[in-house]
Design goal:
13 strands; single chain; 235 residues; Immunoglobulin-like; 2 helices; five-stranded antiparallel sheet
Length: 235
């Protein structure tokens, strides 16, 4: 009976070796009792190579949003400041202010005479209207007094008012009004302009056959443009 146990162990070993081996189809390989995936064909189960982590995945980016790259381009913009402080993109767009005519009034009375002492012009009001007041101081009354004006220095003086004989007065008044607007004015001037004004005095000849004596006064600027002293006068 003492040989019974060894005989039994040998029998069990022979039975175990006679079991059929597991057959696996590529890409699977046999581990003896089961099949495992071997995608690389290196005889090692993929599960053993990745240490149990997820095998390498492949991504399908057909549904991914596009990768938009924005490029910034530096643009140089030139601008110009006009004399009136407006900003434009080209010099020719500046609005050129009209060239102001040069007014160069004669500031002194005509030399070589003693009849005219003073002639002046200043802002005034007539019937609540802006006006110009001229004043002539004479040592002897003339035969005629003529007030002359021009709005362009290049033009000739034109008569705007004339007094003769006993009607000659020291003060004369012109109102800035396009039409007759008051009854207390000697003449009317178009508003918004600049004028040169002077007086012309006529004296009779000393003897028959002698020429008439004509004297011209000094000249004054009468400015009724936007910022002129005559336009800003409060009446």
């Amino acid at each position: 009976m003492r040989w019974a146990v060894p005989i039994l162990l040998v029998a069990l070993f022979l039975i175990g070796c006679s079991q059929e081996k597991v057959t696996c189809n590529s890409p699977y390989i046999s581990t003896g009792e089961r099949c495992c995936l071997d995608t690389e064909g290196n005889g090692i189960c993929d599960a053993d190579e990745t240490n149990g982590t997820c095998p390498k995945c492949s991504f399908d980016c057909n549904s991914c949003p596009p990768n938009i790259v924005t490029q910034k381009e530096a643009v140089t913009v030139k601008q110009y400041v006009c004399p009136d402080q407006t900003v434009v993109d080209a010099p020719e767009r500046c609005i050129r202010a009209p060239v102001e005519p040069e007014y160069a009034p004669v500031l002194t009375n005509e030399d070589g005479q003693e009849l005219l002492e003073e002639f002046r012009a200043r802002p005034a009001c007539r019937s609540a209207k802006q006006a110009v007041e001229t004043y002539a101081k004479l040592t002897k009354l003339p035969r005629a007094l003529t007030l002359e004006m021009k709005s362009d220095p290049k033009d000739e003086f034109k008569e705007v008012l004339r007094f003769e004989g006993t009607k000659v007065v020291e003060y004369q008044y012109g109102v800035f009004c396009p039409n007759t607007c008051v009854t207390t004015a000697d003449y009317f001037l178009e508003p918004g302009k600049k004028y040169l004004v002077r007086a012309r005095f006529e004296y009779p000849a000393a003897q028959e056959g002698d020429p008439v004596t004509i004297i011209y006064s000094n000249e004054h600027i009468v400015d009724h443009t936007t910022d002129g002293e005559y336009a800003t006068r409060l009446c």
